[in-house]
Design a protein that fits this description.
With 201 residues, this protein is mostly helical. It contains eight helices and no strands.
Length: 201
Amino acid sequence: MKKLLLSTMKWSISIAVITFVLAALFSITSNMILNEVAWGTGLGVVFIIVLIGIFFDMIGIAATAADEVPFHSMASQKVYGAKQAIKVVRNADRFASFCNDVIGDISGIISGTAAAIVIMQLTLAFRMGQSSLFEYVISVTLTSTIAAITVGGKAIGKSIAIRYSKDIIFQVGKVLQFIEEKFHITLINDKKRKNLSQKRK
């Protein structure tokens, strides 16, 4: 019980630090881009941020829905990405937490901030004697549209993730193997092997 609590605390602190760093990077980058471009391009940036959140939410759901078994036969045949796909499924809880909570929530927060910047740009570009009603209408319309796309996109993504979880995680496995081979970075450790080594000790 104590070991589980310590492990959970360690993971929670790690994910909080990662979230802080990624949120700062996302925020700085998006603000730099938005401050240098026209409102139309800025609007495109906002929707790209929303799509990133939807995409990672779909991957996180696929990880929890995928079955480990089909990847074992693929791994025995040394299919590219199969071993990494197994790691993803074995660590589905943490992988999904990173994709859904960290990337997904950051995307939601940053898209809201970015939308506020775009609204300011719009009101400055089109304010020609209009009252604050114009700004209010633009704000409500844009915020509602972003919310609708986010919720609707995640709903579609969940359906795709559950139905094609194996294919999605297999592609994720390929990406992870490519990163490991080209950059020598191991993003996910094998939980099962780690547990076995700890028991032997």
